[in-house]
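Schema walkthrough. Field components (list of strings):
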Amino acid sequence: MIPAVNSLNNTIPFSAGDNANEKKLAYTKDTLLKNNLMTRTRIGFDKLTNAFTVYTAKGLKGSKNANFYEFLTMGTVPYIVGSGMLMAVFNTVNTKYAADSVKSACRLGRKMALGVLFYGLMKSISKPFVTTPVKWFTGVDTQLPYAKVNYELPEDINDTDITSIEYHKVFESVEFPRWDLLYGDETKGEKRNFRYDKIAKKLGLGTNLNDSDQEVKPLVKEIVVKTSTATNISQYLWAACGVAFAFQKPWEKFFNVMSFKFWKPEAFAKSAIQFGRSFVESAKSFYFGNGSSFMNRHGGKLLLGTAIAASALGVINASTSANKPSKLDSADVIEKDRKYVVN
Amino acid sequence: MTSLINNYINTRTNIPQNTNTGKMVNTNVEELDTRNYLKPLKGRGRLVRGNIFDAPARMVRDAAYNVKSLKHAIKGNANDHELGKINDMGMFLGGLGIASYLFTKKQAPMEKAMEFIGLGSFFAAMAIWPKLAIQLPAQLIHGINVQQEYIDSFGRKKKFHLDPQFKPWDLYPEQKIYKYADRLGVPKDIPNRKAFTQEKINKIATQSNTMWMLSAGFATAILSGLICNKLEKPVQNGLNAINNYRADQLLENFPDSVTDANTNYVKNSMQKIIETNKGHSIDDKLFTEILNLLANDFGPVTKTGIEKDLRKILYNNKFAVNSITVENMLTELNKQLKGTRYQPLKDIIIPDKDSFIAKLTEKNIFGKEHDKNDIRKISRNILAIFKENILEYNKTHPEDKIDWTDFVNKLNNKEINKAGPIVKGITSTPASKLTPEVQTTLKEMATVFDDLNAVKNVLGKYAYLKVAAAPETSLANYWNNTADSLIKLFNITPDEIKKTRYDSDLVYKLIREKMTEVANMNQEDYTKFMSTLGKKVAKINDILKSSDSDFGIKETKHAGFMNIVDSSIDRILPRLETDTLKMPNFIRRLIGVYYTEINPETKQKVFKTIYTGGSYKDVIKRAVSDRMLGVESSFMRLINAIDLMRRVATDQNVTQLHNGYGAETKEELLEAAIRSVFNDHNADFATKGYTKRNPNPEQGNGNIVRKAGKIVYQFLHKMPEEEKVDIPMDAGFFQEKIKLIFGNQPHEDTKNALTGLNILEKLEAYKTHVIEDLANDFYFAKPNHSISGNKKFLSSRYKFNICGISITEMFYNLFNQKYNTNKWFKVFGGFAAALTTVTVGSQFFFGRMKNPEKAQKG
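Field assembly_structure (string):
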C-alpha cells in the first residue's frame, strides 16, 4: 500500500505540527466498540451522512485517499435513491391522468411504494434473526463493530487533517478478521484471552485453556462464514415477504385515509388507526391467502416458511457443525503442496 | 495495523534465525524446501478481455463459480470473494420470491409474465447502466476501461478499479500504460511518467465509480420501468400468438382435444360411491351425493333438470317403514310441536319409540314396503294412534280437553305443498336400493357425463382463449391493435391528444374534423386509407371463423365454433335417451325445448329444437358471438361513418338529402345523422334520439351547400340553440335519418377499397341488421318510430351489441390510454435522458490533474 509520490517538491512532513488546528479525534487507535443499539445507530448515522457528503465529494474529486470502504459505504446512496425513485416511478405521474385512471394507478402506485418500504425494512430487521441466536449459541458476535483510525495522504501542502475514522466490523473479512482487537488489555487488568475464553466455553471446548485464542479462531471463522451465508440469503427472502405483505388488498383501506399531516391530529389519528387495522388484516390476508387455487391460498405461507426456514437452517448450520473442537496442526497453516502467490 | 506489526516483530525474537551465513555450495532439494528459501511464485492473475461472443461461456463459468461459492459458504470455508457472490445470489433469490408470489396473485397470463419480466428488467437495468453510461463514455473520452475486470491467481474475478488502494498494476504490460499515457495526453518528458499515468487513471476510475453510485439509484428504477414499458407490447403479441394457436389447435383436433380433456372424474367418483353404498337404500344423503357429483360442472338451473331425471331413475316410488323411519318421524314431530301448547303433552299424545313400533306392527305398517300412493293411508293410520291417545286424555282431563282439529292443524306444514312431519318421516327411508341394475345405469350415466364435461371443457377453453375479457385473449388483442392503429391512420398528434382527452365533446370535434379531411381526400388517397383500415379490421377473420360471426356468411364447409358446439353436443344426446337411461329434463337444459324424430335414412334419433333460449348450447354460443358482435359492430360503425362522410362530401348515394324536405330540415337531417353515428351511445340508446330542431323550418327547396367538399350550413345555425326543440312525433325524420346512414349503397371508392377483404360483406350485413332489426324495434330511439311498420321486440343485449361503441367513446378511451402511457414515458424518458446527459457529460471533466514539471535536461 505505498502510494505513488506525485509531488517531488512536497517537503511537508507526514503529520503537520500545528497542534492548535489539529482535529480532536474520537479515537486515537483502532478501538473495539460495544455492539448495542446506540453504537449501531451512531455508526449508521455517521456512515449515512458521510456517504452522501464527504465520501461523495472525495470520490467526485477523484481524491487519492478515496478507498474501498468509502466506495462500499456509498452503496447506500443508490439504495436509498433507488427506493425513492421506484416510489416516484409509480406515483408521481398518476395524478396527471384522467380522473377515472387516477384511482387504479394510485392504488397500484402506493402498494409499490409500501412494497419498497417494507422491502428495506424487512431486509434490515431480519439480519438479527440469524446473528442473535448464533451469538446466544456460540458466543460469537459476528456483527461486533470497531472504529478504525485511518491515516491519509495530505491532499495538498496545507492539508493537516490527515486522519479519518472508519467503522468496520471485526469479522467483516473472513480472511483477515481483526483478531488483535479481541485480545484483552492487560494494563487494564483484563485477561488477555478473556473474549476467546468465553467463546471456547460456549463452544464446549472447556475452560482454563492455555491458548483458547488458537483453539477457537478456526471455529469462529467457520461460524462467521456460515452466519454470513445465512444472513445474505435469508435477508432477501424476508424482504420478499415484506413486498408480498405490502401487496395485500386491505392496505387499500389505509391508502384511502392516509395522512402524514401530524399537525392535523384528527386526520392523523384516523390514518394511524387505519394503518393498524390494515396491518392486521393484511397480515391475515398474506398468511391465509384467498382464492381457490393452492398457490393462492398457501403462497404467503410458503414464502414466509421459506424465509423462516432459511434463517433457522442458517442458525442451526452455524451453531452445530462448528461445535467439534479442532486443533490445527502447524503443518496445516502452510500447505507444502500449495503454491503461494501474490495478486 | 502498526500494533499488528509490532506484535509480529515481538513474537519473532524467539524464532531461531537462519545462521547459515556462508556461501551455499551443496544445494539440495530438501534444503530448498525450507521456508528460508521459500519465494513467491510469479502471479497468475490476468485481465479479463471478453467480448460479446464469449459472454455465454463467461456466464456458465460464473454460474459454476457461484455454485462452488455456495457449497463453500454452507460448509463454512468460503473466502470473502465467495461470500460476496452469496449476497448476489440471495438478492436474485429474493427477487424470484417476490415475482413468484405476485405471479400467483395475478389471473391473466399476461400479468403473470410481466412479474418475471419486471424482475429481469431490474437486474438487467442494474447491469446495463454502468456499462452504458459509465464504461462506454469513459472508454470513448479517456480510452480507459473503468470497469475492467481481472482474475486473480486464485481464480477470483474482481473489478480492477474497485479498491483504489489496491490495484494489481503489474497485470498491465508497461507498454499498455504508456499507450494510455499518450491517449490521456500525459507529457512524454516528465519524471515518473508511468506512476503519474497510473495516478491519473486512478482518479478517473474513482470519479467514475462515484458517479456510478450516484446515478445508479435513479437509473435502475427508471431503466427497469422503461424496459417493462417497451416489452409489454411484444410480450402481449407473443402471448396472443401462442394463445390463438392453442385455441385453434383445440378445434382443429377436436376429438383428440376432448379425449385429452376427459378426466374420468365422474366415472371414478361414481365407482367409489357405488363401492361404499352397494345394496344400501338410497336415502337423501346418498341421492344428494350422486346429484352433486353429476351436476358438479353445471349451473343450478341445469342441476334441477338433472335432479328431476335422477329422481325418476333412482326411486321406484316405494318407501320402507323401519325403526329409522320411526326415529326420523319422532324427531320431525318433536320439531313441529316445539313451542306449541302441545309440547308439554307430546309424551301423552305421541307414543315412545317402542310402543310406536308395536302399534305400527299391529296395524301392519311396520317392517313393510309401501307404495307412494299409500302414504296418505299410512298417515291416517298414524293419526288414528294419536287420536286414541287424545281421546283417552280428554276422558281423564275434562277441564283441559285437547282440540283434535287444532292439533292436526298444528301438525300441518305452514308452507303450502310441503310435507308435514309424518310424511317427512315416511319418505325419509325410500325403499329404493343401490341394486346392480341401478348401479349399471349410474355407471353408464357417469361415462356420458365425463364425455360431456370434456366437450364442455374444450369448448369453454376455446371461448376463453379467444374472446374472454382478459388482456391477452385474441379478441382483446385484436381490438387493441386495431384501435391503436387508428391514431396513426387518422394522423392524430400527441398534442391533439393532450388537448382533447379530458372532454369527449372535444374528442368528438377533433375526430369529426379528421374524418371530414379523410372524406375529402382524392380517390387514390381515400382508397388507400380505407383499404388500410379494412385490412386491419379484416384481421378478425384470422381469429374467428367468418361463419361464427353474426355478420358472416353461414357456411358449413369450415367447421367453425358454432358448428362444433352443435355437432359435439348432438353426438352425445342419444346416449341420454336410451332404453335404460332417460334424461329428458337434462337434455332440455342442454339444447332447449326439443322433440325427437327418427331419420328415415340412418334410422338414428335426431333432436330438433323449438326454442333454445337459456340452454347450455345457447349460452356458450352467445358468449362467443356476442363478444364478436360487439367488436365487429364497433368497427363496422366506424367504417360506415367514414363512408357516410365520403358519400355526403361527394354527394353520392345520399338519396335522403334529395327528397322533398325543405332546405333547413335537410341540414338538420344531415347533422342529426352525423351526430348520431359519432355519439349515439350503446348503453343509453333509448334517450339519444333527442334532436333539437327548428319547429318552423325554412321551406326553401335548396340543397346542401358544399364548398371545396366541406358542408357549409346555410340555415342550421341561424336559430339560437335554446329556441330549438325536439319533435318526437316526426317519425319520418327518424326514418330518413336511419336510411341516410344505413339504407344506401356504400360509396364506390369504399366498395373498391374493401373488395376482397371479406369486410364489404360484413358491412352490408351490419347495415341490414340495423335497418331490419334495430330500426324496427318498438322502442329504439323513440317509442314506435319503426322504419317499416313491422314492430320488433329486441333484447337490450342485442341492441347493445349491434350499436357497438360510439366513435367518440372509442377515441376518448384510446386518447386517455395513449396519453397515460405517453405521459409516463415523457416524464421518465426525459428524466432518463437528463440523467444520462449529466452522467456522461461529467466524465469530460474527470481525470484533470496538474502535470508535474518537466524533467530538467542536463
